[in-house]
Amino acid sequence: MPSSSFNVNNHLPLIAIIRGVQPDNVLEVAEVLVDAGFSLIEVPLNSPDALTSIKLLVEKYQAELGKSIYVGAGTVTTPAQAQAVIDTGANLVVTPNLNLEVLELAHQANCITFPGVVTPTEAFSAVAAGATGIKLFPISMVGLDGYKALKSVLPKDVLSFPVGGVEPTVDSMLPYLKIGANGFGLGSALYKADMSIEQISDIAKAFVKAYEQCLQQI
Fold this sequence. Notes:
Homotrimer. This protein is α/β, with parallel strands linked by helices and 218 residues long. The chain contains eight helices and nine strands.
């Protein structure tokens, strides 16, 4: 069963955003990501036949869902979309914006949720509505200074994940981790639909290595 109880310390806190993935290769892509250490896999709804891909992931990882693996959807923008995702059995809902109806539906279904926010008002509204964490998106709009200011007023236990433009390097990740980022959402720098499985595997491993090197410097 999906579970809203999520301990970030039990997971590699990197959300794999596999936008553009197809049902005929989603399991192969997920397998190399999981092998590299990823346990949070997001299929954006603007991917081809995204709900079918999510159902395939749910079926494959059913025994691990809510324990060692979370799979679900990104770019969830309406309550109808949220319900369709919930109906697949997914346990992860990520949004590009703050929609309280979407958040409430996902929360009631015991999905972990990461709504997209930019401003303090959005961040505090997301926290009050029971979000698992907040997705700072696009982080390029917030910037390091804006993120530092936001972190200074958020409760210490609020999980925050910068998303957008993060590369598999210490230089890219470390500044945010030093401010207090709990993890990252990784999109096109990790996965593009035209990449080979070998490329995806190599990049996934590079992200894990860079993140682990960052931890040694904090």
